[in-house]
Predict the structure.
Amino acid sequence: MGLADIASGVKVTSEQHDRSVAAIDVTDASLADRLAPFADDLPCAAGAAVTLIESYVSGSSVGDSSYAAGLAPVTGAKTLHLLGEPIAPLSPVGRRVVREWIDADCTRAEALELAHASEAEFALAVFVETHEPLAGAREALEPVFMPESAKRPTVTKRDVLAETMSDASELR
C-alpha cells in the first residue's frame, strides 16, 4: 500500500467544526435542595449528608468526612454510594468473592478469607453489591462532585502561547 492509497479520500475543507466539550449546567440550587428528593432513602439525616458531601468534595477521606458529619464511616460510605459516588472497599477479586457469597457459592468464612477483608469492609462490600445508587441522584449532584478544574473554562497550551505564535498570513 502506497502513500497515494493511504491518502485517497482525504480532502481539505475550509471549515472546521467546533468539537468542544459539552457544557454542564451548574445551577444555583443549594446542596440541601439537591438532596431533598433523596433524603428519605438515605441512611442518615439530610443535614448530615450535606456535611458529609461538603467535606468529601473538599478532599477529605470518606472516614474523615463521616466523622465531620457525625456518622460512622460505614454509614458515610453507604450514603456516598447511594448518591452515586463509586465506593469500592475491596479489589475486583474481593468483589467477585462477595458476589459468590451472595449467590451462596461459598460460606461467609470462606468469602472473608478469600476477599482478604475485615468484617466492616466485607459488610460494606455486601451493601454496595446489593444496593444500586438512587435513580437520578448522581445527575442531581454532578455539579457538586465535579472537580473545580472541570468547572473552569479549559485553557490549552495553545491559548497560553498564542502571543508567541505567528499565523499563516505572517509567513508571506
